Amino acid sequence: MNYPFRLGQKIYLRALEEEDIEHCLRWFNDPLITRHLESDRVPLDRKSQIEHMEQTRKDPKQVVMAICKDDNDLHIGNVGLHNISLIDRTAKIDVVIGERTLHHKGFGSEAIKAMCNYGFKTLNLNRLYLRVKSSNHNAINCYKKCGFIDEGTLRQHSFEDGEYVNLVLMGLLREEWEAQ
Length: 180
Description:
- It is built from six helices and eight strands.
- By secondary structure, the protein is an alpha+beta fold.
């Protein structure tokens, strides 16, 4: 394991490193990966990806970690907390498994659970939230499996494949996490 920060059963989380840029560039330029993400879906280059990683690393309101398989140290995705509010004790959580061959194998839910544990137990947050496109049924099921609850819908909020789709708001409170 290369500098594990948080351990799961099949994965570990660690800081993003410069050598991870190649993976990130491949994933975030892959339309099959980005179609469900809340992003501008514009091509990324190495320089902008390096700048983004540096900005994220310096921003105290964000924590983004690499998701690595513990059996071979392969960087398979990223998980992050964003908009961390130390006053409200909240943060937005997101995850991407960039290696398409590893989708639907439980790595995303394991990473979400590890990051929830970090957010609630280490950062002392009270609420984690996310936004997910209603067309992303697999992600919605993953988040529900991790304890997130549907809190509302932003109607026709995102444009995907030529049509507008709803954005589902989901949240998880520390007390709900601890009761699991």
